[in-house]
Amino acid sequence: MKRIALILATLTLVGSLSRGGLVGYAATETAPDKFVRTANYYLLSGSALDSAEARRVLPKFDILVLPVEAQVFNRDFFAHARRVNPDIIILAYVVSTSWNDLYWNDSLHARMRQGIQDGWWLTDGFGSRTSNWPGLTLLNLNTPWTDYLAQFTSDEILGTGLWDGVFYDDVGDGVSWVGNVDVDRNGSPDSSTAADTLWRAGYVRLASETRNRVGDQYLILTNGSSRAELAPHVNGRMFEAFPTPWEGHWNGTMQKYLTDETRVRTPQVHIINGGTENTGTFTDYQKVRYGLTSTLLGNGYFGFDFGTTRHNDLWYYDEYDADLGAPINGPSDVLRPGTWPIKQSVWTRDFVGGKVLVNATETDERVRLNGEYEHLRGTQDPTINSGRIVSSVHVGAKDGVILLRTVENITGATYINGSFVRVFNELGTVERNGFFAYNDKAQGSENVITYDTDMDGKLETVVAGRSRVDIYDDDGSLHASFSPYTERYRLGVNLAIADIENDGSVEIVTGTEDGGGPQLRIFNKDGNLIHPGFFAYDTAFRGGVNVAIGDLNGDAIKEIIAGAGVGGGPHVRVFNKDGRVINPGFFAYNPAFRGGVNVASADVNGDGIDDIITGPGAPGGPHVRVFDRDGHLFSEFFAFETNRTNGVEVLATDVDRDGRAEIMGMSEDIFIF
Q: Which of its termini does the chain have fewer beta carbons within 10 Å around, N or C?
């Protein structure tokens, strides 16, 4: 996510700001490659918002809509949510047309109430105050109330620096539905046309005056009107209880949603709020999928809760963690290609990392795909989220499905060409289907890595053979070739690549394989030696040395991680680029084991610090372990069957672009005869 600006010089100023000035977080927008996008419409403050479960779940969402009084009762929650999720957008829930005497007893609403004049209430033709909901009293948008609310929102709410914008609730297309109303304040009932015209003009005044006061530094959303006259002033709206008859069911709602995205202010922020229709059946996963996949036909955010009578749920679904990457195109009709505007049919949209399908018809459909895709893996509805690889998919009526592109290539980490790879999260849960990793620049069993070695945004391929390392440009031509340990050496080369010093230049670190001394050497992107190297273990040892690179302390300077080769103990050591021992090391497995230890490094738990991943050499089992830099064990699991005794090679890279690297275990059985 990109935050357009930060008005605060330091976070410590947030809590000490006086009222009346617009300071704080600037308007935000989610990164263009962040899909799925989620929202939670959570209208409880106080102890509910401070509960352990709320503090655990709510920061996971991309957008939160919270009651404005949270700035009084739950000030610490804002800092907590932003620590957990620095990209989160938090909007203040503000009612635009009514007053709640039953529940608004906090100091903020008390200050707001003091400024409301008697002449600002909406009355009927007999001078009596009106209501549109039990316990609520309506205010008249055809009064200075709109200017007052805009100023109060700017100064007293957004001026705290806690919020990223305002969410004006109860923004509709008219007020005549309430009944006998006197919007023009002439002492007699208005016609429906006159009342609604004045009411809509009041909404525009509220939105435009708020925008004039806050500029583009804050988001303004409504719930919810799609009228064109509001569009120049707002960033989007919510579609509550999707899909609803008052918005035109699925057809009408989707047409408004997709049209609104083309005409509101940037950044465009629309929220599709699905729900159980006030039944509480949170396990209706089909309804969740239907709403979410419909949302993904545009660029909006999706949330799912109880319904129109309650918005305080902490429900979180398997699909929310899917990472589709950036959209490739817009929605297209599967059954009637070229159809527009959107209407009930089967629709699809392609993303860099996958595809979504939504069936808005009354009948089940089978869709043939343009290649193989992978179902999500989940526990809530495993019949759908099964991880299966498919070339066609059944989509039920009023249902949808998210599919991922199959993993076929590994970037940013060294792997054994032609090996079978299994993909796990940091706890050992299978994340994606296994696959054979292959690059046609390398022969089977050679070490290969694709990496942007010249920092031009394109991937080069580096192949380590028995003696030589070849560097291929992104166009496939051979850029450079070198022999790290002279041409006479023919025992195999290990390698790792990274910008060690964070200076914009990439280093290639090499190690020897079985039979070689444990010498690490450092070359630049062109294969020129820039450091003569050092021995990670005793110079007499002849089992080789495995190598990885990672930033183990979060200082942006990377360390070199060594693992003893064949015949050595499972000893992991950490060095700086000059070969100075930073950490004397630790034994990843039983010190008496003599199969050596394979190493990899990446941030597998999303804390911003790279971890050390290990796998034993033969005759060890496929036992993967994850450590911090000091050798403290974080997790462990078996990448393959526990009775295997060929050890396990490991690597780690962010396959699904979610900021956490996946751990991969490689099987070399196909190379053993």
A: C
Tell which residue, 110, 129, 104, 114, has the closest CA to residue 45: 104
456 shares its domain with 546? yes
Q: Which residues pair with 626 in a beta bridge?
A: 613, 635
pLDDT of residue 253: 97
Q: Report the domain count for the chain.
A: 3
pLDDT of res. 584: 87
Count the neighbouring beta carbons within 10 Å of the beta carbon of residue 580: 8
Range of the domain at 197: 2-9+21-321
Q: Please tell me whether residues 585 and 651 are part of one structural domain.
A: yes
Residue 410 has pLDDT above 60, yes or no: yes
Give the pLDDT score at 658: 81
Higher local confidence (pLDDT), 489 or 11: 489
**305 and 336 fall within a common domain:** no
Selected residue with higher pLDDT from 18 and 545: 545
* Domain containing residue 150: CATH number: 3.20.20.80
- Burial (CB count <10 Å: 0-12, 13-18, 19+), residue 658: middle
Pairing assessment for the beta strands 633-638 and 63-67 based on DSSP bridges: unpaired
Using CA atoms of 183, 184, 185, 190 in order, give the dihedral in degrees to the nearest 10.
Answer: -70
Q: Which amino acid is at 493?
A: V
Give yes or no: residues 364 and 450 share one domain. Answer: no
Tell me what pLDDT residue 400 has. Answer: 98
Six token digits for residue 387: 């991880």
Q: Determine, yes or no, domain membership for 557.
A: yes
Q: Choose among 83, 84, 50: nearest CA to 66.
A: 50
* Residues 419, 400 within the same domain: no
Q: For 255, which DSSP code?
A: H
Task: Check: CB of residue 599 under 8 Å from CB of residue 529.
Answer: no
Give yes or no: residues 442 and 401 share one domain: no
The verdict on 364 and 242 lying in the same domain is: no
3-state SS class at 206 = helix
Report the chain's terminal Cα–Cα distance, integer Å.
Answer: 50
Alpha-carbon distances of 654 from 234, 323, 658, rounded to whole Å: 36, 11, 7
The two three-digit tokens of residue 248, written as one number = 């035109």
